[in-house]
Amino acid sequence: MSVVNSITAADAKTHCEHDHAVIVDARPQVMRHQGSLPGAVVVEPNDVRERFTPTPSGTFPVVRDPDTEIAVVSVSSQAPAIAEQIARLGYTNVHYVDGGYRAMSTQYRT
After folding, report:
1. What is the residue-wise DSSP string for 28-97?
2. What pTM does this model have?
């Protein structure tokens, strides 16, 4: 059973702009040549567990509050699994962006 669901790129951007969410760009480095997302936390897909696991003192290292909304952008087929992995590490409000990087990048074009 899935513990995460999708969020639209427009909603993810709006939530991020109002400091309600953090965008996590978990695309592999070879995919990030497409561009970057302003303010996104960049994490290699293979480093998700290491980067998001709480420290021995119980703090959350990448996104400090485990209740912060996290919107994961990755290769479309990997995004739900990466979001699930982050949620299993103790983060309580994790989504994946429907449409991935392409959908998010259109939100930042002016």
Report:
1. -GGGGGG---TTPEE--GGGHHHHHSPPTTS--SSSSSTTSEEEEE--TTTHHHHHHHHHHTT-SSEEEE
2. 0.90
